[in-house]
Amino acid sequence: MTKLEFNLDAHIAKIPDFPKQGITFYDISPVLEEAQLLRQAIDVLCEKAKIFQPDLIGGIDARGFLFATPLAYHLNCGSVMIRKSNKLPGEVFSQSYDLEYGTAELCIQSDRKLSGKRVLLVDDLIATGGSLNAAQSLINKAGGIVCGALCLIELTGLKGRDKMTCSVDALQSYEY
Question: Quick check: is 154 catalytic?
Answer without folding.
Answer: no
